[in-house]
Amino acid sequence: MDIRVGLGHDTHRLEEGRPLILGGITIEHSHGLAGHSDGDIVLHALTDAILGAIGAGDIGELYPDTEAIWKGADSRIFIEGALARMQGLGYEVVNTDIIIHAQRPKLGPDKERIRDHVAALLAVEPDRVNIKAKTGEKVGHIGRLEAMACQAVVLLQRDLRGRDHGF
Ligand code: MG
Fold this sequence. Notes:
Layout: E1 2-16, E2 20-22, E3 25-27, E4 31-33, H1 41-53, H2 59-62, H3 76-88, E5 92-101, H4 111-122, E6 129-134, H5 140-143, E7 147-158
Parallel strand pairs: 5-6
Antiparallel strand pairs: 1-4, 1-7, 2-3, 5-7
Helix pairs in contact: 1-3
The site of magnesium ion has 4 residues, from strand 1.
């Protein structure tokens, strides 16, 4: 068995009136995340974690924010692209642990919805996805409501027995 770990991080600025999308779920809030795409920090961090685990660089290399094609993009595209690369190398997701840093809104009621949606995107059981939410303790860019951030770690595995992945 070959196992790989990957780490992802993302920060986006908060902007009044934009939709707040976390892990593909739209959350009722006065502010959303600014960005070239839909600003979904959860799917961006998770995409980077998967790309990191397979040694495939990062989201900015694959989907440059200078390219108009990704403007307003549903971040599902990014995670699906990373998953396709991962599957092409014969890996599957073991589990992922995700921390969302947000002073507001309280994400407690939304964590389960986010977890279930991320699990569906990854095609794994919900117990293989864990979502944590942390405030910024009212300090720093998170605590001052200027931004939200997300960290994701992912573990991948592949069974090398009887398979040829070109290695
Ligand atoms: Mg991003």
